[in-house]
Amino acid sequence: MNENKPGILIKFPIFIDTMKKIAVSFLLIFVFTIISLSQSVPLRIIMIGAHPDDCDLGGGGTAILLSSMGHAVKFVSVTNGDAGHQTQGGGALAKRRIGEAQEAGKRFGVTYDVLDNHDGELTPTLDVRLQIIRKIRDWNADLVIAPRPNDYHPDHRYTGVLVQDAAYMVAVPNVAPDTKPLKKNPIFLYFQDRFQKPNPFRPDIAIDITSVFDKKIYAIAAHESQFFEWLPWIGGYLSEVPAGEKERLAWLAKQRSRPINQETSKSLEKWYGIAKASEVKNVEAFEICEYGSQPNEADIRRLFPMLK
Ligand SMILES: [Zn+2]
């Protein structure tokens, strides 16, 4: 009997050591599973514009990049676009524009909702504010992008106000109690614009969309009534619009290419590094809104995974 004792004494520490190794392995597997699960949960982004084509112009390239990475993007037009044409209008034009928005949505890889408010007549009423609160809640948004309230077009301006008005209320259960309030207030950003008063746009975030610029142009071209009819007519350059489809896309790409200003270049350098920033040809920039959750740099890299 005694002869066995030394053997037991030697084997017991080995057993403890093996158990420790197994426990550590399980712990590591658990931690890696949690990390990979958290990374695979798609982000939920909602962009809100006044007209069917506003989100497309302001954030379309970013939407293509996010959607191609498996994230869920929705565009919302707060008006139905029923005033944006020189010869058409009313219900028939709204119908045409909803069809164009659906086609654009397919090309961008996003879902596209058009709210039934008249174009050119938008005001920041409680009714429209509630429509927007419900859209943000239904999408369970992590990130909301909308125009700033400084803009030449009243619909753009009031869309900015309406989204600002929703930026706290989305988390308040007694407001629009028919939709579930968000547990966490999303992060709100503004689309880029050129307006200087009372303060110019600040490009806090700059996204390189060079690789998807042609796709963006193809997608916005779905809004035929706008880019090839209405905007050239009101801008006085209708005669410049080419007839062929290929020629139209090339013309639109040229028309929508913008030089990158100094502020945006600085932002690109911050997010991509100097070497990569110098190669960027097309960019979409966003400003952080003071309302809603305030992101730090890590939050921004999580919400824009192309920056990792
Ligand atoms: Zn617009």
Structural features, described:
This protein has 308 residues and is of the alpha/beta class. The protein has two domains: 2-38; 44-307, Rossmann fold (3-Layer(aba) Sandwich), CATH 3.40.50. It has eleven helices and seven strands. The chain has helices at residues 5-40, 54-68, 90-108, 126-138, 154-169, 213-220, 224-235, 245-256, 262-272, 274-277, 297-303, and strands at residues 44-49, 72-77, 111-114, 143-146, 187-191, 205-208, 283-292. It has a seven-stranded mixed beta sheet with strand order 3-2-1-4-5-7-6, with helices on both faces. α5 (154-169) links the parallel β4 (143-146) and β5 (187-191). It is globular and about 90 Å long. It starts with a helix and ends in a 5-residue tail after the last helix. The model has no long low-confidence stretch (mean pLDDT 92). Zinc ion binds next to loops.
Summarize this entry quickly:
The chain has 308 residues and is of the alpha/beta class.
DSSP strand (E) fraction? 5-15%
> Over the alpha carbons, how many angstroms does the gyration radius reach?
25 Å
The set of bound ligands, ions and cofactors reads:
zinc ion
What is the count of β-strands?
Answer: 7
Order of helical and strand elements = HEHEHEHEHEEHHHHHEH
CATH architecture of the largest domain: 3-Layer(aba) Sandwich
**What is the spatial order of strands in the main beta sheet?**
3-2-1-4-5-7-6
Q: Give the helix/strand class.
A: alpha/beta
Largest sheet: 7 strands, mixed
Helix content: 40-55%
Total domains: 2
What form results from the Cα inertia axes? globular
